[in-house]
Amino acid sequence: MPELPEVETTKNGIAPHILNQTIESIEIRQPKLRWPIPEDVSAKLPGQVIREVARRGKYIGVQTDSGTLIIHLGMSGSLYFVAPETPPMFHDHVDIHFVGLNKVLRYTDPRRFGAMLWQEGDWHAHELISHLGPEPLTDVFNVDYLYEKAKGRKQAIKQFIMDSKIVVGVGNIYANEALFMAGIRPTRAAGNISKARLAVFVECIKTVLTAAIEQGGTTLKDFVSGEGKPGYFKQELKVYGRADQPCAICKAPLKEIRQGQRSTVFCTVCQK
């Protein structure tokens, strides 16, 4: 599943090409994504100028004067540019055409778990976005905030930090990596971790996500950035996908368990 760095990479890849461009038309070949694409998308976007391309959590907001096209990549979605004459394949569901721009923004989604939604006014007020926690790379996400949220919580720290109401964008891969970097066992209760260790954890989350964004994303083998380039797959990962392999620090074999039906890999020696 594309996580925050992949979505940020996609946003950064498409934004320079479409900012201040006028939408000519939208071609919707398959409206049945996770939710049906609302008619407002094809009715209200043509003729609009794109004023900003932003990200909130895993959502991309393509903002115009009349409203915002909210895009979620789901489990297998990608946005990238193709030449106008490029014929669509079976999973190419939406094309966005621009006035005078010799390229088309294409949305591809084999599993159709992504979404294209419409919001007039402040797109952060959309029901899928308004409840989200702070962005992990902002100053709002700090040790004081996390310590208060973790107080008295018996939930395992990995599942706690993956809750988008606590903080957005710390998905499974990066939760594994940040916990390893911080030396915290994924099964430890969130409320039983000292403020000092949470301070380290916060910095590790920021470090891991920043590195992944700079690298261009690490997840799906079929992830494609906004410029049509594949993501760099697993090159820097220390624990995720490395069950039974030696720990990068102590060489003990890494252990894999399931938490909330997701893979968790950690070192039983280095992570306490």
UniProtKB/TrEMBL annotation:
<keyword id="KW-0238">DNA-binding</keyword>
<dbReference type="GO" id="GO:0140078">
    <property type="term" value="F:class I DNA-(apurinic or apyrimidinic site) endonuclease activity"/>
</dbReference>
<dbReference type="InterPro" id="IPR010979">
    <property type="entry name" value="Ribosomal_uS13-like_H2TH"/>
</dbReference>
<dbReference type="InterPro" id="IPR020629">
    <property type="entry name" value="FPG_Glyclase"/>
</dbReference>
<keyword id="KW-0511">Multifunctional enzyme</keyword>
<comment type="similarity">
    <text>Belongs to the FPG family.</text>
</comment>
<feature type="binding site">
    <location>
        <position position="111"/>
    </location>
    <ligand>
        <name>DNA</name>
    </ligand>
</feature>
<feature type="binding site">
    <location>
        <position position="91"/>
    </location>
    <ligand>
        <name>DNA</name>
    </ligand>
</feature>
<comment type="function">
    <text>Involved in base excision repair of DNA damaged by oxidation or by mutagenic agents. Acts as DNA glycosylase that recognizes and removes damaged bases. Has a preference for oxidized purines, such as 7,8-dihydro-8-oxoguanine (8-oxoG). Has AP (apurinic/apyrimidinic) lyase activity and introduces nicks in the DNA strand. Cleaves the DNA backbone by beta-delta elimination to generate a single-strand break at the site of the removed base with both 3'- and 5'-phosphates.</text>
</comment>
<protein>
    <recommendedName>
        <fullName>Formamidopyrimidine-DNA glycosylase</fullName>
        <ecNumber>3.2.2.23</ecNumber>
        <ecNumber>4.2.99.18</ecNumber>
    </recommendedName>
</protein>
<keyword id="KW-0227">DNA damage</keyword>
<dbReference type="Pfam" id="PF06831">
    <property type="entry name" value="H2TH"/>
</dbReference>
<dbReference type="InterPro" id="IPR000214">
    <property type="entry name" value="Znf_DNA_glyclase/AP_lyase"/>
</dbReference>
<feature type="binding site">
    <location>
        <position position="153"/>
    </location>
    <ligand>
        <name>DNA</name>
    </ligand>
</feature>
<keyword id="KW-0456">Lyase</keyword>
<keyword id="KW-0479">Metal-binding</keyword>
<feature type="domain" description="FPG-type">
    <location>
        <begin position="238"/>
        <end position="272"/>
    </location>
</feature>
<feature type="active site" description="Schiff-base intermediate with DNA">
    <location>
        <position position="2"/>
    </location>
</feature>
<dbReference type="InterPro" id="IPR035937">
    <property type="entry name" value="FPG_N"/>
</dbReference>
<keyword id="KW-0863">Zinc-finger</keyword>
<dbReference type="InterPro" id="IPR015886">
    <property type="entry name" value="H2TH_FPG"/>
</dbReference>
<keyword id="KW-0234">DNA repair</keyword>
<dbReference type="InterPro" id="IPR012319">
    <property type="entry name" value="FPG_cat"/>
</dbReference>
<dbReference type="InterPro" id="IPR010663">
    <property type="entry name" value="Znf_FPG/IleRS"/>
</dbReference>
<feature type="active site" description="Proton donor">
    <location>
        <position position="3"/>
    </location>
</feature>
<feature type="active site" description="Proton donor; for beta-elimination activity">
    <location>
        <position position="58"/>
    </location>
</feature>
<dbReference type="Pfam" id="PF06827">
    <property type="entry name" value="zf-FPG_IleRS"/>
</dbReference>
<comment type="subunit">
    <text>Monomer.</text>
</comment>
<dbReference type="Pfam" id="PF01149">
    <property type="entry name" value="Fapy_DNA_glyco"/>
</dbReference>
<feature type="domain" description="Formamidopyrimidine-DNA glycosylase catalytic">
    <location>
        <begin position="2"/>
        <end position="114"/>
    </location>
</feature>
<dbReference type="InterPro" id="IPR015887">
    <property type="entry name" value="DNA_glyclase_Znf_dom_DNA_BS"/>
</dbReference>
<keyword id="KW-0378">Hydrolase</keyword>
<keyword id="KW-0862">Zinc</keyword>
<dbReference type="GO" id="GO:0008534">
    <property type="term" value="F:oxidized purine nucleobase lesion DNA N-glycosylase activity"/>
</dbReference>
<keyword id="KW-0326">Glycosidase</keyword>
<feature type="active site" description="Proton donor; for delta-elimination activity">
    <location>
        <position position="262"/>
    </location>
</feature>
